[in-house]
Amino acid sequence: MAALDIVRIPVLSDNYVWLVHDPESGATMVVDPAVAEPVLAAAAERGWTITDIWNTHWHPDHTGGNAAIKDATGCTITGPAAEFARIPTLDVQVKGGDKVRLGHHVADVWDVPAHTAGHIAYHFASDAAIFVGDTMFAMGCGRLFEGTAEQMFANMQKLGTLDDTTRVYCAHEYTLSNARFAVTVEPDNVALAARLAAVESARAAGEATVPTSIGEERATNPFLRAPNAAELGRIRALKDAA
Ligand SMILES: [Zn+2]
C-alpha cells in the first residue's frame, strides 16, 4: 500500500488545512477546510480531485470551506455526529470507534472531547499519522471551551499511547507561543529549551513547525506530560491568562 501524500496548506492567520491523497486510488481528502479557494487551488495544482472532507469539530475556522468545496467537487463531508446540529453540511456522521476510509487507507475515529464537546480525531495506524484538530498542538493543547481538564487529560493520555514516530497533524501554528509558555512550566527541561531555540529559528525563517510527533511531544509538551488532570487544568488556566 502506497503511503499517503499529505500537504500542508496555510490559511487565515495561523490555520493549517491538510490535503491528504491516496496515490493508488486517487482519493483525496481535506481535513478541516477553514476556507475553500486555497484548498481547491492546492488540489488542482497537483491534478487531484477532492473526494472527501473530514471535520474534527464545528468551529468555523475548521468548517468554513465545506459548502464551497462540496459545490465545486461534489465531495462527501464526514464529521462528528455529536456536532451535526452545528455542521449542517455533514453527509456522514461518525463517532469514536467508527472507521472511515480514504481509498485503501482506513482511519480510526477517536472521541476527544474538551476543546468542543463533540471533537473527534482521525488516526491512520497504517501511516502512523493522526489528525487532531484543536486537541493537541506542538507543546500545547486546545483551550477547554466545552469540556473539562479531566477530559483533556484523558485525551492526552490516549495520544500518549501512540508510538513516538506517529506524526501529529494539528490545525494551528501556535508552536512558538506554546514553547515560550512551556519553558516557564518546565524550566529545567533540556529537550524543551533546545526545541524552543529550534522553533525560534524556524519561525524567524518563515518555516512551519508542524506536523509534530508523539515522541517530540512526549519530551516537551507540558500538557501531555502533566501527571494528572488537576495539573493540566492549572497550566491550561495559566496559558489562557498569559
Ligand atoms: Zn477550534
Automatic annotation (TrEMBL):
Annotated Zn(2+) 1 binding sites: 57, 59, 115, 134
GO molecular function: hydroxyacylglutathione hydrolase activity; metal ion binding
Protein name: Hydroxyacylglutathione hydrolase
Enzyme nomenclature, EC number: 3.1.2.6
Similarity remark: Belongs to the metallo-beta-lactamase superfamily. Glyoxalase II family.
Chain's role: Thiolesterase that catalyzes the hydrolysis of S-D-lactoyl-glutathione to form glutathione and D-lactic acid.
Keyword Metal-binding: yes
HAMAP family reported in the protein's UniProt record: Glyoxalase_2
SMART domains given in the database record: Lactamase_B
Domain Metallo-beta-lactamase: 14-172
Pfam families: HAGH_C, Lactamase_B
